[in-house]
Amino acid sequence: MTDAANSLNHRPTQAELDLTTVDGTPLKVALANAQKRARQRALFLVLPLLLFVLITFLAPIGQMLLRSVYNPSFSDHIPNLSVWFDENPAGTKPDEAAYEALALDLRSMRADKTMGIAGTRINYDLPGSRSLFTSTARKAEKMEPPFQDAILAANKKWEDPKLWQVMRGASSAYTADFYLAALDRTRDVNGDIVSVDDDRKIYAANFLKTLFLAGLITFCCLILAFPVAHLLATLPLRQSNLLMIFVLLPFWTSLLVRTTSWIVLLQSQGVVNDTLVATGIVADESRIQMIYNQTGTIVAMIHILLPFMILPLYSVMRPINPSYVRAARSLGATSWTAFRRIYLPQTIPGMGAGGLLVFILGVGYYITPALVGGASGQLISNFIAFHMQKSLNWSLAAALATLLLLMVLLLYWLYDRLVGIDNLKLG
Amino acid sequence: MALPKHASTLERIWHYIYLVICGLIFLFLIAPILIIIPLSFNAEPYFTFTQKMISFDPEGFSTRWYDLLLTFGMSAPDVARDGSWWADVWQNSAWVQAAKNSVIVGVFATIFATVLGTIAALGLSRPEMPYRRLIMAVLISPMIVPIIITATGLFFFYSSIQIAKWELFGWQIPYLGIILAHATLGIPFVIITVTATLVGFDHSLTRAAASLGANPRTTFFKVTMPLILPGVISGALFAFVTSFDEVVAVLFIGAFDEQTIPRQMWNGIREQISPAILSVATILVVISIMLLTVLELLRRRSERLRGMSPG
After folding, report:
1. B296 lies in a domain?
2. Which is it for the CA torsion A190, A194, A198, A199, positive or negative?
3. Out of B93-97, B131-135, B255-259, which region has the weakest mean confidence (pLDDT)?
C-alpha cells in the first residue's frame, strides 16, 4: 500500500523511463497509443448513428433555421427594384425611377407567372397585397411612361409608404423580419422596429400562455404524482409492481387513444356529463363544456404527462431509507415535521427530474391541444402547424419553431446539468 | 406502508384519506383507458352508456363498429362472407390498409433504430468514449425536441432533396421518408434502454472471451449479445411503439396514399368522430397490454440474468 502511494509521488528514475515494450517503444508511448486506439474504436461504433442522426435530424433542423431567415420568393423576382432600393436610403419617397423599376419587374413577373409568389411574400406583412400584385401585373404590359401615373391609375394603393417599406424589407432574401413577426413586432415606414397593433398581437401572448399552461400542468402533475409515487415507493415490491401497471399502461397506450378517451368522457353528451345529469348535480340543459377548450387541453395533458412525473419520482423515492424519518420521529418531531424536514428534501432530485421532463414535453405539445383544445386551448405548436398547413407562411412557421426550439434546448441543457441525460429512465 | 401500532387517531384518519386520494389518482390514470373498451361495443352511435348497456341487455351491445373497420373502403361489403369477401377486406379495407402500412413502416424504422442504436450504445458505454456527454445529448435530442419542429424541418429537408422521387434500381422506395423519420424518433429509446443494460455489464467478460481465443465477432454474438438482449428488445419495442403511434411527421411528410393507423384516427377524430374510432382504440389498448406483459417478462429475465452474472 505504502509502496503504491510512494510510486505515485516520486519522480520516475532513469531505469523506469527506459522501460519499453518488446518492440522497443517506451511504455508511456505504448499506453497512449493503446488508449488512442480504444478511443477511436469507441468513436467508430458511434459514428454510423451519428451520421444517420446528422442527416435525418440535424440537417432538417438546420434547413428550418435557414428558412426562418431566408425567403427569396420576392427578392428573386425584382431585379430592377432592388437596384433602386440599393441606391436610395430607407424612407425615400418613391420617384418616377422607382415606379419604372416596379413596372418593369411586374412585366417580367407577368411573363414568368411569378407575381402570385412575389405578392404572397408581401401579403404576409401587408394583407391584401397579393391581389394588388396580380391585378397590376396584368395591366403592366400596356403601361407607358410616366409609370408613376400609370401604376397609380391602376391602383391607388401603390402610393402607400408602408407597402414600399415592406417591399424594401423583402427585397433582401436574408431577413430577420419573420422573427420580428413572431415576436409581434414590425417595421414602420422609416424601418424602425415597433409593436404591431394590439388586435394583431398573437404570438408573444401565446408563448407566455404556452409557458404558463406547461407550468400549470407540471405543477398539477407534481401534486398528483407525489402521493402515488410515495405509495409505490413504500409498499412491498410485489404489491408496488402490481400497482405500477396503473402507471405503465397509460404510459404505453397510444397518445391518440388517450386523447380519444378524454373526448368521449368529457364531451357534452359524454360519460361525465351524463353521470352528472343522472345524479342530478347538473341540470340537463346546463351541461358543462369541458372539452374543445382550455380545460380539455389541461385535463388531457395532465393525464398523458403524469407517468413522466411518477416514474422519476418513484425511482428517487424507492431508495430513501425510512429509518431517517423514524429517527426524526423518535427525537420528537411530529409526522408533519418529519415529512417536511427529512423526507421532502430527499425527494427534490426526483421532483426536479420529473418536473423538467414534463415541462419540456408540455411546452412543445401539439397533438392533444389540436384535437381537444378548441380555440382557447391552442399552444404555440398549433400556430406553427397552422402556418405550415393553412396560411402557408413557412418562414414565419420556421421562425416560431426556432424560438420554441431555443426555449426547449435551454430547458434540455438545464436538465442535463441538473439531472444528467444518463439518468433518463423509461418504465 | 402499514401504520405503526402507536399511531394517533389523527394519523390513522390521515392515512386512510391518503389511501383514498391515491386510489382516486389511480382511477384518473386508468379509467379513461378502460372506459372505451365497453363503449366500443355500443349498439348505438353514441359515446356514452345507453340504458340498455347499463342494464346489461344484450341488445345494447354489438360488434357493428368492429365490422365497420373491416368493411369501410371495401368494394363489395354486402356479399356473402366467403373467401373472396375476406380477400376484398385484405385488399381494400381502409383500416386494414392503414394497419399494413403502419406495420411496414414500424418494422423497418425499428430495424434501423435498433441496429444503429445498439452499436452506438456499445460505443457510448465504453469508458474511453470521447465527447460522451455531447454525443449522448445529440442522440437523445429527437425525443426532447417537439415533434412539430422535427416535422417542420423534415418537410423542408425532404422537399429540398425530393426524397419522394428517389429510386433504387428503378424502384421507387415506398414510405422511405417516413421510415427514416420514425427511425430517428425511435433511436433515443434504444440508446437509453441499451445503455441502461450496459451499466451493469462486466467488461472483463469480453476480455475473458478474447483471451480464450474468440474473435470480436464471436465475442459479440456469444457473450455480449445474450446479456444485453433484454435491453435491446425493450428498446426495439419502444421504437416500434413510437413509430406505430406517430402521426405528426406522417401528416407533414407522408404522401396522400401513405395512410397509417394514427393518421386514420387523426382524420377520424378531426372530422366526424364515430364509435369506430373507439373500436380501433380498444384494439390498440389490447396491443399495449400485450406489449406491457412482454416487457415485464423481459425485465424479470434481465434481473435473473444479472443475478447470475458476476459483478
Report:
1. yes
2. positive
3. B255-259
A403, three cell numbers: 424560438
Q: What is the DSSP letter of A197?
A: P
pLDDT reported for residue A335: 85
Chain segment B96-122, per-residue pLDDT in tens: 999 999 999 999 999 999 999 999 999
* CATH fold label, A204-423: MetI-like fold (1.10.3720)
The total number of structural domains in chain B stands at: 1
The answer to whether A233 and A317 are in contact (CB under 8 A) is yes
Per-residue pLDDT tens over the stretch A276-305: 888 888 888 888 888 888 999 999 999 999
| Residues A211, A202: Cα–Cα separation, whole Å | 14
Evaluate whether A165 touches A90 at the Cβ level (below 8 Å): yes
pLDDT of residue B311: 31
Q: What is the ipTM of this complex?
A: 0.88
Is the residue at B194 inside a domain? yes
User: How far is the C-alpha of A237 from the C-alpha of A234, rounded, in Å?
Assistant: 8
A136's grid cell: 397590376
CB B98 within 8 A of CB B264: yes
Q: How far is CA B31 from CA B36, B48, B161, in A?
A: 9, 14, 46
To 10 degrees, the CA torsion angle through A200, A204, A210, A212?
Answer: -120
Inter-chain CB proximity B288 and A363 less than 8 Å: no
B18 touches chain A (CB under 8 A): yes
Q: Could you tell me the CATH number of the domain that includes residue B116?
A: 1.10.3720.10
- pLDDT averaged over chain B? 87
Nearest CA in chain A to B277: A260
Q: In chain A, where are the structural domains located?
A: 14-69, 75-200, 204-423
Q: Is there a cis peptide before residue A60, judged by omega within 30 degrees of 0?
A: no
Picking from A260, A273, A410, A411 by the largest number of B CB atoms within 10 A of its own CB, the best residue to mutate is A260
| Best residue of A41, A71, A254 to probe chain B, by most B CBs closer than 10 Å | A254
Domain with B262 in it: 95-308
Closest CA to A227 of A369, A400, A118, A343: A343
Over its C-alpha atoms, chain B yields an Rg (Å, rounded) of: 25
In degrees and rounded to multiples of 5, residue A288 shows phi and psi of -80, 135
A128: number of CA atoms within 13 Å, CB side? 7
Measured at the alpha carbon of residue A223, what is the angle toward residues A221 and A229, in degrees to the nearest 5? 85
Residue B26 domain flag: no
Over range B279-298, report the average pLDDT: 90
Q: Smallest Cβ distance to B149: which of A250, A253, A401? A: A401
- Whether A416 and B133 lie within 8 Å, measured CB to CB: yes
Q: How far is CA A163 from CA A151, A344, B185, B288, in A?
A: 14, 60, 44, 56
Mean pLDDT for the stretch of residues B213-228:
89
| B16 vs B302, more confident | B16
Q: What is the nearest CA distance from A273 to chain B, expressed in angstroms?
A: 9
**Does any domain span residue B204?**
yes
Please tell me the distance from the alpha carbon of residue A393 to that of residue A405, in angstroms, as a whole number.
Answer: 18
